[in-house]
Amino acid sequence: MSNAEDGRVDDQPPDSEDPEAESLQALREEVEEKYDFDDFGPEDMAEMSLDEWEAVFDPETWITGEELLDRVERELKSRIAYREVFAVLERIERDGREQLLVYSDEGYAVVHPDGSIEGQGTVLRDVKPTVALCSMEEYEVDDPPEDVSLPRPVDVTQGSGEFGNLMLQVVAGAQMLVGAGLLIVWMLFPAVNSLFGTSLPTVSTIFAPLVAGVFLAIGFFLFLVVANARLSDRFRAEEYRNRLRAVGAEEGDRPDFLPFDEASSPRVERRGDDGDTTAEGKSEGA
C-alpha cells in the first residue's frame, strides 16, 4: 500500500478488536486488488463507489483552491479537445469566488474551489471523476493542445469516409457489370448467332443466370451500403450541428436552462503561459 505522499491511506494493521477497522482494512485490500492505481483514470473513478474512495484516499492530501480549478480546467480542456467530452468550459466569478462552469445541451456542472460540484445531466457525470482525479497530488495533468474549443456548426463536415464509399461503389459497379455481362452472354448471344450466323461465345449452363443473379445482388447490396453510410453521415453531422447551436457555439450565448445568467456569473479573463481563457471566457481554438 502507498503512504500519505501519494494521497492514499497508509496500510496500518487494524486493531483486531475493532470490527469497523477490520472491515475498512478488508475493503481497502479489495480495492487495491480491483484497481490499478499506477494507471488510474476517469473511467476507473466513475466505477469506484464512495465507500471505496474513502477507504483508499486520504482527504488531508487533496488539492483544493485555485490550484484545483487550474488542474481541472487543463484536464477538461484536453478532454474537450480530444472529443472525449462534449461541453463548453468557462471560468466564471460567482458569489465573489472563481468557479468553473461546464455546460452542454444536456446539462451543466459548476466546480467550486473546495472541490464540491453542483449541476445536472451527463456533464455532471463526466466532470465528477475529473475533479476527483485532479484533487490527487500524484495525478499528472497534461497540458491541453492549442485548439480546445468546439467547432462552429458551419465547420462540421458530413464525414471523412468518402474515399471508402467511392471504393465500395467501384466494387459494386464491377459486380453488376459482371452479372449483366453474364446474363447477356447467356440470353442474347445464342439468338444473335442463330439469326446472323455469327460465332459469339455462349454459355449454355443453367447455372449462368444463377451466378449472374449473385453478382447483381452483391452489387446492389454494396450500393445500398454506400447510400446508407452517406445518409447516416448526414444525420450525424446535422445532429452535431444542432448540439453546437444549442450550447451557443455559433453566437457565444449560454443555454437558457442554466440556473444563473451572465450578469450574476461573468466570465473571468485569465491570461497566462497556459493560455487558459480569453476575455470572452471561452477557450481559444477553432
TrEMBL record:
The chain crosses the membrane at residues 166-186, 206-227. Residues 1-11, 267-286 have a biased composition (Basic and acidic residues). Signal peptide: none annotated. Residues 1-27, 252-286 are annotated as: Disordered. Keywords: Membrane, Transmembrane, Transmembrane helix. Residues 48-262 form the DUF7319 domain. This is DUF7319 domain-containing protein. Residues 12-21 have a biased composition (Acidic residues). InterPro entries: DUF7319. The keyword Membrane applies. It comes from the Archaea. Pfam families: DUF7319 (PF24003).
